[in-house]
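Blackboard transcription, Thursday session:
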Amino acid sequence: MEQGRDRFRVTGGRRLTGTVRISGAKNAVLPILAAAVLCPEEVVIRGVPAIRDVQVMLTILRRLGVRVREEAGLDGLTLVLDPSGLSTAEVHEELTREMRSSIFLMGPLLGRVGWVRMAYPGGCAIGPRPIDLHLRGLQELGAHLEEKGGYIEATATRLRGREIYLDFPSVGATENLMMAAVLAEGTTVIRGAAREPEIVDLQSFLCAMGARVRGAGLDVIRIEGVRRLHGAEHTVAPDRIEAGTFMAAVAAAGGDVKLENVIAEHVEAPAAKLREMGVWVEEEADGSLRVRSRGGLQASDVKTLPYPGFPTDLQPQFMAVAAAAMGTSVITETIFENRFRVAEELRRMGAQIKVEGRTAVVKGVPRLSGAPVTAPALREGMALVIAGLAADGVTEVCGAHHVDRGYERLEEKLRGLGAEILRV
Ligand code: UD1
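(Written on the board underneath:)
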């Protein structure tokens, strides 16, 4: 992030055309980086997006004694991590506060070191985000937990595999427990597991290091514990949320864009929604995804669900699209309690949105109008940029640092498609 330049200035009304390359997935790379501490040898991770959350995770890893080498390439960063010198399993509050994903270190540190001490995690303010499923699962694997002064301490001489049932398919808890179970004694079965593609990517990386994990992508995951892992190389899967975000941007602004480095199956839910709204989305012969929109979109209802349902991480961006569509869309958020905070900001741009509990009723208006707005969080900030692209006049989105947590070179990518966006 460029210090002090925390606003995007977007001039609306430009159609988006050309090709954009999607980066490696933020939500895949964060658990993968945490999983690296399980390994006593060097691991190489390619296709890593240069985003702020990755930098925070690398800072945490360095403080734990992991040696990190970063090489910038055409396709994101290549990271060479050497966890052989891991010297502590304590993660301080100033680091966990920055990023909720620091919780991912709990399982792997416990697995490798048998001890971990960590402050309660922070991150995006989207409703209360408890970690009870993570903690309960670790306890079931035999960890002894103690909570003192905002810190959680967990110990286990060696975790023991067993059956765990998750009451809700939490993405993070599934990943944390998979990582904890890799070096445990015996077999762990996670039932009611989340099925997100990022979990499949984590399984690939764990297996590349010699772990015995199968079932990711289904709701039962089996992990046979092994004694030791070995060095490995892995390329991070494409970011389906970044892809869905660009699809929403093209839908709202109008245009004709080719998305490269996308797995079409991973964006089926948002693609189906956009087709319903009148956007043309097709997979090309070369595997890229082409998105065409002439504007004049129809309203459509959206309900967020665990994968393969519509992702909550695209809900705010689709609210921006619905705000400029014809007719009334009902948006239902079933994953997070407090994820409609962008509605208030969109209203400043002329959107008509009524929020009641977990439902937002969005009555489309013919044109949004540019206004100064503030990003409450990552995806919400992106929704405001999208609204700005579709609006008349100039929109200034304050809080670019939220967006930098999860989008690599956003202005550059959008400008490459003909958008008028500056960081000021
Ligand atoms: C991950 C994603 C995030 C996405 C979310 C849902 C990463 C780094 N982040 O977050 O971008 O929005 O999945 O797709 O991958 N819950 C509990 N107890 C727990 C854990 C979760 O009640 O111990 C609840 C949460 O409050 C929330 C729901 O379960 O209501 C889903 O959370 P979860 O799937 O765990 O999301 P994250 O892994 O935090």
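Lecturer's comment: The chain has 14 helices and 24 strands.
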